[in-house]
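**Protein record**
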Amino acid sequence: MKNKPRIAVILDENTSGDATRYEAAKAYFTAIRDAGGLPLGVPYLPEIVGLVVEEFDGLLCAGGRFAYPDDWYLEGKVSQAPQSERFPVECQIVEGYLTRDKPILGICAGMQLLGCVNGCRLWSDVRASSPIALEHDKRDYLHRVVLTPHSRLAGLVRERTILVNTFHREAIGELSESVVASARSEDGVIEAIEVPSQSFALGLQWHQEQFAATDHPGNRVFRGLIEACLQSSGGRRARRRR
C-alpha cells in the first residue's frame, strides 16, 4: 500500500513504578502495521501536540492506569490510580482530532478518555459499583461481550458476540447523549463505545491488540481505523485541490 496512513500511538508509562519510562506493548504497533498503517509512538511533550493533530492521519490511544480529574467520576468515588503527565497532552490531542473529525481508536484507558471528553462519567471500581459485576480486573481472563446491532463496531466485526480479555478496574458508568454503547459484557458493563457524530471514533475497553497475532474477529477494528484514515485523508487532499 502506497502512502500508508500514519497512526499516532499515545504511549503508556510505568505508573506502577516510578513513572520514569514510556511503555507500550509491541502488539499495538503490530496490529496497526498488519492492518495497513504506519504506527509511530507519541511521548507526552506539549510542544508536539499541534504536529500530531495536523500531520498524522489517525490516532490510537493505548491502555494505561492513571487517574482522571475527580469530576469525571460518578458518586464522588475518585480514582485510586496514580497521576500521570500523559493526561493533559493526550486530552489536547484527542480534542484536536475530534474537532477535525479525524479517526480515533481508544483502547482501555483510551476508551475512557474518549468517552469522558464527550461527556461520559466513570466508575472508579467496577466491582464496588455494581453488585452483579463479573471479574473485570484479571489478566488473562476472558469473558463474552454482546455487540449492539447496527452499530459501527458490529458492522466492522460482523459477529453478534465475541470473546475478549479483561484487565480494567475503572469503566464508563454513565453515557452522555453524544456517545452510544456498542458492546456490553453479560453483566451490563459498557465494553465499547462510539461517537456517532464523528466519521470514526471508537473505544474498546478490552485489549484487542493482544489478539493481533490470532484470527480474532475484533482485529477488523484496526482495519476499520486504517480505512477511515484513507477515506479522511483522501477527502482532505480533494478539498486542497479545489
Q: What stands out?
A: The first strand starts at residue 6 and ends at 10.
